[in-house]
């Protein structure tokens, strides 16, 4: 039985095109929020501007579609089936996650094609993946036989088959088997395991995200991802299946479009248009949609204000947050429960009790701090999405 089957998602998994999926989590919503003006919310509150989110969805899905690739967006930032279903309706065919517990959340919400881009190590983890195969069709990344063999054994005990791909190091030097002979030998070993089905390769070119200049970025990304093309060709020459070649984060999305061997992209965070991606990674055409609604709780002097939101509410790295509509206000101290602002002439009119919107610099490190996300349209709360992926660390 799925470990999270008891959670009341109220999602009809037989109707993935049903618009109700975007608000199918309403049963646990604080209904008093629905319809309220943004400025009536208690603070601090995590918010997403639906117009910006939907614009980003259209932009990213168009880039993927025009490249002829598939879209399997990562869910480490959204952390809610509501956004995952929006991605699926916008053209995605599946999703990517880091942890088994995240996959369980999405499977319970009716999403079946799930890539686990994390090594399956540990008895509990492999047993849960094998159990997940009864409700979904996961794909699991491996970079060593010591991960694959226990997973295969767990699958055999349950009478299921799990798809597997070889994780190849394309230059990030984190996980991933060395390209070339090592990748091929691991693929051959996996292919011989009853309980697993080899289906391809993946790699993550995350080390190239901060390269903002397209003239430099495109050839470097192409060079890195040639390791996956090499693996694909070696697999096929050896008679192995390689229908999946998975790569492409949001920070390298436009560059990865020039790599013909890639069959699917994992870019997911771009739908929130974080300044990290636009300012640090050079991704154009995206709009910031995530914000923290905060309140001014102190005005110690003319050029300083203190907000009721700090490190426990939003991340200020790897890209600093900014204040919507207050370009000369800057976060100069980021404490546990407070943010201290340095105010320029345009923002010195702020008073105690005023509310401000902090535009989140990097959503991945912010959504994990919240239980719910307020979906805002035209200044009012349209929905409240429980972030059931929060805290899913295993």
Distance between the termini: 18 Å
Number of strands: 17
Q: Helix fraction?
A: 25-40%
The total count of helices amounts to: 9
Largest sheet: 9 strands, mixed
**Element-by-element helix/strand order:** EHEHEHEHEHEHEHEHEHEEEEEEEE
Mean pLDDT: 92
- Based on secondary structure, the structural category is alpha/beta
Model regions low in confidence, pLDDT < 50 over at least 5 residues: 1-29
What Rg is obtained from the alpha carbons, in whole angstroms?
A: 22 Å
Helices and strands in order:
Blueprint: E1 45-49, H1 50-67, E2 70-71, H2 81-89, E3 95-97, H3 100-108, E4 114-116, H4 123-132, E5 139-142, H5 145-158, E6 162-167, H6 181-191, E7 196-202, H7 214-237, E8 244-247, H8 253-256, E9 264-265, H9 275-280, E10 290-301, E11 304-307, E12 322-323, E13 329-334, E14 339-343, E15 355-359, E16 372-377, E17 380-386
Parallel strand pairs: 1-16, 2-9, 3-4, 4-5, 5-6, 6-7, 7-8, 8-9
Antiparallel strand pairs: 1-10, 10-11, 10-15, 11-14, 12-15, 13-14, 16-17
Helix pairs in contact: 3-4, 4-5
């Amino acid at each position: 039985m799925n470990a999270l089957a008891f959670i009341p998602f109220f999602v009809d998994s037989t109707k993935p095109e049903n618009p109700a999926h975007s608000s199918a989590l309403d049963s646990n919503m604080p209904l008093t929020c629905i319809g309220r003006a943004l400025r009536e919310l208690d603070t601090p509150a995590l918010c997403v501007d639906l117009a910006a989110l939907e614009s980003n969805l259209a932009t990213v899905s168009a880039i993927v579609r025009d490249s002829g690739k598939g879209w399997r967006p990562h869910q480490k930032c959204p952390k809610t089936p509501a956004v995952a279903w929006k991605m699926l309706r916008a053209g995605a065919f599946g999703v990517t996650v880091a942890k088994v517990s995240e996959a369980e959340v999405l499977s319970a919400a009716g999403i079946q094609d799930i890539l686990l881009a994390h090594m399956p190590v540990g008895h509990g983890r492999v047993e849960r993946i094998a159990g997940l195969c009864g409700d979904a069709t996961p794909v699991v990344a491996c970079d060593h036989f010591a991960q694959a063999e226990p997973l295969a054994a767990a699958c055999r005990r349950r009478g299921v088959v799990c798809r597997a791909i070889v994780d190849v190091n394309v230059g990030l030097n984190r996980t991933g088997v060395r390209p070339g002979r090592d990748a091929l030998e691991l693929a051959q070993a996996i292919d011989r395991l009853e309980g697993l089905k080899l289906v391809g390769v993946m790699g993550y070119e995350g080390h190239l995200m901060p390269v903002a200049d397209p003239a430099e970025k495109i050839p470097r990304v192409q060079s890195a991802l040639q390791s996956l093309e090499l693996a694909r060709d070696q697999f096929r020459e050896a008679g192995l299946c390689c229908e999946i070649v998975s790569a492409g984060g949001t920070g390298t999305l436009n560059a990865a479009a020039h790599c013909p061997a890639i069959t699917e992209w994992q870019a997911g965070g771009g739908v929130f248009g974080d300044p990290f991606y636009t300012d640090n990674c050079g991704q154009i055409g995206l709009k910031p949609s995530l914000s923290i609604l905060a309140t001014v709780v102190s005005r110690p002097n003319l050029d300083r204000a203190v907000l009721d939101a700090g490190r426990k509410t939003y991340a200020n790295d790897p890209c600093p947050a900014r204040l919507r509509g207050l370009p000369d206000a800057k976060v100069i101290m980021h404490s546990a429960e407070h943010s201290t602002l340095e105010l320029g002439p345009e923002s010195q009119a702020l008073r105690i009790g005023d509310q401000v919107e902090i535009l989140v610099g990097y959503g991945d490190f912010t959504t994990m701090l919240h239980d719910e996300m307020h979906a805002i349209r035209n200044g009012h709360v349209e929905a409240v999405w429980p972030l059931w992926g929060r805290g899913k660390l295993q």
